[in-house]
Amino acid sequence: MKSFSSYKNPALAIDLVVFGYHDDRLSVLLLNRKDEPFKDQWTLPGAFLQMEESFQDACDRVLGTKLGMNKVYMEQLFTFDDPARDPRGRVISVTYYALINPKKFEVVAGKMANDVQWFDVRKLPALGFDHKTIFKTAHQRLKSKILYYPVGFELLDETFTMPELHHLYECILETKIDRRNFSRKLLASEYIVETGSRREGQQNRPADLYKFNKKLKQNNFQLNIN
Amino acid sequence: MKSFSSYKNPALAIDLVVFGYHDDRLSVLLLNRKDEPFKDQWTLPGAFLQMEESFQDACDRVLGTKLGMNKVYMEQLFTFDDPARDPRGRVISVTYYALINPKKFEVVAGKMANDVQWFDVRKLPALGFDHKTIFKTAHQRLKSKILYYPVGFELLDETFTMPELHHLYECILETKIDRRNFSRKLLASEYIVETGSRREGQQNRPADLYKFNKKLKQNNFQLNIN
DNA sequence: GCAAAAGTGTTGAGGGTACACCCATGA
DNA sequence: TCATGGGTGTACCCTCAACACTTTTGC
User: Which domain-ending residue is among B129, B144, B178?
Assistant: First the structure.
């Protein structure tokens, strides 16, 4: 049996598309690179995979050290293999997307970055590498996923109102959704539970607060949009 | 900027779940290994990624040299990263699943294998590495995919009858489907077109032959099962 | 003529869409 | 009391699920 070390292997990177919902809009976290290649340009956060590290470990490392986050919802997206995607040589990129509540974390630029910032998904700057493609793939995946899986709660606070949830869905799907039908559908799915309290101190009638039903494991939720 | 060669990288393998439909059942192609590890055991076909090779190239290489196939429907499945998944050391496995018509190819055991064989998905032998997990992931993906994307045609001949298509769906989904509702639904979707001819020489009433409508690019096909 | 399988049509129930009205709050 | 936004109810339509009869072939 041949030894592995006799083969030369491509480098393996982990790149993350971190979505956040803030100020009534969907955003992505981007990093301004301090070093070449793509110095001073915006890219997705990422890192090279260490030899003993699982993907999860690598993602946690990026989220922890570069962004000051932990325990976030994450899912594998796609593995990008274009031999020309990195000017330094052959780099395979295994990508994940994450959903976080920006209020819970203070983003910090790590050693490798000039800056870290949230960008409205509709107003992204030019991105280095093939990161625009990666972002588009993630955005599309999120749009599909949210229609049959209750993934939006990860972006909101522990408790939230129906109008807040409604607006989040409109934001992600980039469509109008009838709020009454939306409300009925979500309540019928049993994915959300009333808390009994309301969001007070707003301009108008206080909205009921709900929370995600964590006990519910399986469901045939399917949101149909007009 | 650091040189890449200073880093040691995990090995990168490509593994394939090749589905075929034959004798009214769904099968997977397995390979009996000639060498350690898992010598004389069944595994999914695969190979190490070459330095300059894209995933597509690597898949074509495996399908071509080990299985004598070309130009098949293929889709990326998932990338498996368990550091202990290969006894030889750290190997990341990027997996694809393929759909082929077994009648079109004569499978041949390449240099690396004792044997290559189709196995009924319901009667798989023990598999080496984490290939059982990979298979299950692929099977599940195929089940979901076929409900909203006309992927079954890849497994059939150029022309096929409605009962054949119906049985294929029942096979993949492992459920009974009402044949009348199924037929109406498929015809309404415009994914299939009448050829005008019929399957003659059978025991009973000849069935109409259809073919896949290749012109149709986009559709909101969604099959609902009882 | 009979068995077996293929083609086709109908009906009723349920879910979704598209609506309008009432309610609670701050100013 | 008025404007604004949140909560709730209803009717129609359309789709889907359930089901039965007719047709064509081989023996």
Answer: B129
Closest residue on chain A to B86 (Cα): A4
Number of domains in chain B: 2
CA distance A10 to B129: 22
Residue type at B52 in one-letter notation: E
- Distance, CA of B77 to CA of B142 (rounded, Å): 10
A26 and A120, same structural domain? Answer: yes
How do residues B196-211 score in pLDDT, each as one tens digit? Answer: 999 988 889 999 999 9
Beta strands B25-33 and B11-22: pairing type? antiparallel
Is A4 close to B88, i.e. CB distance below 8 A? yes
Q: Do B56 and B120 fall within a single domain?
A: yes
Structural domain boundaries enclosing B162 = 157-212
Could you tell me what percent of chain A has a pLDDT over 90? Answer: 74
C1' (D25) to CA (B154) span, angstroms: 29
Same domain? B125 vs B88? yes
Contact A55, A94 (CB under 8 A): yes
pLDDT digits (tens, 9 = 90+) for A28-39: 999 999 988 999
